[in-house]
Amino acid sequence: MDYDRAAGRKDSAITGKYKQIAIIMLATLFAFMGLGGAEVAIVGLLILGMVIWALVDVIKSDFTKPNNKFVWILVIVFMPILGSFLYLLIGRGQRASRY
Q: Distance between CA 97 and CA 22 in Å, rounded?
């Protein structure tokens, strides 16, 4: 068993095995789907771009209710993919003005 000094707890070998299995399964899934390094990087960059775009749009916009800006920022930060997608679908209609 490994000791994690930062967390002050011991990690069991089972947790390490599950992490390794998850990584192998994910790699197998990407290989089966035909996704290599370049495709995964492009998808990652597209997702990152969508998250940044949503955050910038929230920060620059005024909303009809003052708490909406804060709530949308929290949603995007804590659930980046789903939050930015929901903001671009729902949140943009809640804006009072664009910039």
A: 45
User: In this structure, what token pair is assigned to residue 83?
Assistant: 């939050």
CB 2 within 8 A of CB 10: yes
| Chain segment 17-36, per-residue pLDDT in tens | 677 777 777 777 766 666 66
Separation between Cα atoms, residue 88 and residue 54, nearest integer Å:
7
**Could you give the angle at the alpha carbon of 86 between the alpha carbons of 41 and 96, nearest 5°?**
125
Instruction: Note the pTM of the prediction, 2 decimals.
Output: 0.59
Amino acid at 44: G
- Residue 35 has φ and ψ, to the nearest 5°, of -95, 120
> Cα 43–16–13 angle (5° rounding)?
175
CA-nearest of 7, 25, 30, 99 to 58 is 99
